[in-house]
Amino acid sequence: MSGHSKWHNIQGRKNAQDAKRGKIFQKLSREIYMAAKSGGPDPDGNPTLRMVIDKARSNNMPKDNIKRAIKKAEGGSEEHYDEITYEGYAPGGVAVFVEALTDNKNRTASDVRVAFTRNGGSLGATGSVAYMFDRKGYIVIDRSTTDADEDQVLLDVMDAGGDDLQTSDDAYEIYTDPKQLAAVRDALIKDGYKLADAELTMVPQNTTPVPADKKEQFEHLVDALEDSDDVQNVYTAAADED
């Protein structure tokens, strides 16, 4: 592991996106719909669906929205979304990996291309930056929700099958093999931990500081990508802010 910590940045992004909550719910509904359509509507028998529902709940998505998305999949809707990834560089040479879920590839490709070109970035070919990231399971325990000390948490994480534990002042961040994420999550919940987050993510192998004179452009690029209705996740290799 590179030692790259995500939680502080995730919290910052979530706070900044409060005003965009309706758009976030729309994106989560797509994920729930696709998970239920491909693996069945029962979260107990569909780990992917359960993971997305947990993600929706952590974003305060109303239960009715979740139920509607699942019922839509159950009803045999012909609606379909393709999973597409885009790769490129932000200002300052920072690698960017974008995941989209779309029913119109041309529209999404145009949105992503415009976001990069208008904000000082460059869209690359498939594979141009993907090799710089590792797919990982990612779990967060807010330290204020547990009395366990770091040694106990580490022991429980290892027993659960986790790969790595990183500790900060406010959180325990756990990384797992992506195929073991559901099992590790369930084991930690069984041990009594309350999880603040549990999802699949892309972790950069190395990070790149964003030059001070490029920071505003960099933030505008990430915002523009996240504003696209079709973009589900934006991962960057930007170094954490101090």
TrEMBL record:
Pfam families for this protein: TACO1_YebC_N, Transcrip_reg
Region feature (Disordered): 1-22
Top-level taxon of origin: Bacteria
Domain TACO1/YebC-like second and third: start-end pairs: 81-236
GO CC terms of this entry: cytosol
Entry's Gene Ontology BP terms: regulation of DNA-templated transcription
Localisation: Cytoplasm
Keywords tagged on the record: Cytoplasm, DNA-binding, Transcription, Transcription regulation
UniProt cross-references to InterPro entries, sorted A to Z: Integrase-like_N, TACO1_YebC-like_2nd/3rd_dom, TACO1_YebC_N, Transcrip_reg_TACO1-like, Transcrip_reg_TACO1-like_dom3, YebC-like
Residue ranges of every copy of the TACO1/YebC-like N-terminal domain listed in the record: 5-75
Gene Ontology molecular function terms on file: DNA binding
HAMAP family: Transcrip_reg_TACO1 (MF_00693)
Family from the record: Belongs to the TACO1 family.
PANTHER family, per the entry: TRANSCRIPTIONAL REGULATORY PROTEIN YEBC-RELATED, TRANSLATIONAL ACTIVATOR OF CYTOCHROME C OXIDASE 1
Record's protein name: Probable transcriptional regulatory protein QEJ78_00845
Organism of provenance: Lactobacillus kefiranofaciens
